[in-house]
Amino acid sequence: MSRNLNQTFSSFFSNNTFIPKSFISYFVFFISLKLIVVAIMAILLPLYFDRSIFKMMDFYNYILKDEFLGPNLLYRYFLITFEIQHISDYFPIFLAIVLNTIIDIAWIRVLFKLFQTKIGLWVFLILFALHPYLSIYFMQFSTILFMKIGIFLFYCRINYFSNYSIKYEILFSILILILCLFRNQLVFVAVPFYLIHSYKLKKIYPLFSSLMIASIVYFSSGNYLDLVSNSIAKYSWNIEYIQRLSNYENIFILFLILLISKIFILFGSREKVFVEGIEPFFGTIVGEFQIICFVLLALFHLFGFAWFLKSFNSQKKLYSLSLVIPLFISVFSIAHMRYLIPYIPLCICGFILLSEKFLIIIKQ
After folding, report:
1. Is 68 strand, coil or helix?
2. Is 357 in contact with 287 (CB distance < 8 Å)?
3. For 337-352, how does the pLDDT look when each residue is reduced to its tens digit (9 = 90+)?
4. Distance set, CA 4 to CA 24, 161, 162, 175 (Å)
5. Total Cβ atoms within 10 A of residue 269
6. What pLDDT, on the 0 to 100 scale, is given for residue 3?
7. Is 180 exposed, middle or buried (0-12, 13-18, 19+ CB in 10 A)?
8. Half-sphere exposure of residue 255: CA atoms within 13 angstroms, side-chain side
């Protein structure tokens, strides 16, 4: 088994198309550009958007709660253990920068093999570094960070490490469970993945992983589902809100408009759109410019993500459904671009792959 695992790692880190002569140059370019963009966002957000780059609406809910159980349990106990009182403290900023840098570089190292040209790789690096939402959350030690790690691990698991012994399955399951307890949303990837894995292998032991993770996360999360339900109920985007905006009466048309709207909000809009509705953005140049950016970002992410999913190996497509389920749930619950953050590298990569395909067709 050790030999097979070594061969898997060797295959994972090899490249059949081209290998950069010095990968460090890509890293230096990316992180330098990223830090410049983060610094610019830290300056612009208070000036034009009336918010700090360290704004995290539910941060103090974690450190002020007295309950033993609750949502994202390990995240809360991590904050308490290390006496993190503010998300803008030096220690959480340091952790966020280090972990985000590691996971971003890991994505680059994995995805660069997919590009057909070096130009495609450089465009990916530039767009990845310039992405405004990734820059906003680059210094935030939030639970989304653990969702990013989880999505990356599952992507690698699906594409590079398909055959584990039971010993490694157990270790991977424990790692995923820990991440799920930092970010409960990851359970909606883990459980479907293990169900699909059990079906594909025709074996029962992945079902135990699925049951273990689902049970522990459910019983440790306290009133998590009630909090989500209350959040959905108090925000603007529902049938009544769409009816008030559009004056339509047909329930099917209203539902269709609501569904499309929430997909666009998830793939392109900031949290304020979901919380306060679209009206506050009309009437000012900055607000209307934001709406244009939201639509363009949503189209960019949607086309990119759809094409990336299409590019999955046919034997892996069923597994890829497990990656999509949290987004599907978001569309029917709380939908804004913060929930897309773990998938943005895939969206950017997919859009560039689509562009490369389009250019090849034009040249022919």
Report:
1. coil
2. no
3. 999 999 999 999 999 9
4. 29, 10, 11, 21
5. 27
6. 40
7. buried
8. 4
